[in-house]
Amino acid sequence: MQGRGTLSFWNGTTSSSSRKHDNTAGNHYKHQRNPKHHTVHVPKMGDLANQIAMSRDRSDLPLAKFPTLPYALDNAELVGIYFASSWCPMSTPVTNLLSQSFSPNNQLLQPEGTSTTAPVKRKPLALVYVSSDKTKESMEEYSKDKGWIDVPFETTERTDLKRHFRTCAKIELAEMGFERKHEIPTLIIIDSQTHGILTTDGVADLKDHGASALDEWIALQQAARGMEDKYL
Question: Fewer Cβ in 10 A, N or C end of the chain?
Fold first, then answer.
């Protein structure tokens, strides 16, 4: 299946092109998993060097402009951006898989303000919920006790993230006014250091691997950072 395990860097001006093939993100390279081998396509050396240099000035990275994300990006190795809704029947099994696979007490970064007695400990994964729920109450009930970081319902940030990644529910298309690339549920995995997309197909990874999907995402992240060390 084309595009599974895609890894890319982008310049913040456009989102990934499709759930299956992440190929419109400015200067990028792809890492596609294969049971027998890995193939990495590397951009021109100057392009990669510029992207990595930009990644080290975190204020210029494309996701720094979203108010909810810096806490997750600063305190977790990977950030999963989860687009879903309580009313969407396809979201329910994915949400159940997330709850079964990742414990708020172990792998997941807790929402800001959860711990008042100890400093925040860096975690392997943070899950940020971008809701398509119809009310604030339904959003909060859906994400309750799951360890997710909710993008506030009453702000424009939810809409801004949907536009950035071109991801939303079908019923939101008229309001959003863009050509949708991903439907809900979608789980996009981000390298917190570079803001690069490791995969837009986190839902399929969960279905295939369960809790071991985290190992798959870490492997992609290590491959990306290995390329940085080699080519910068």
Answer: N
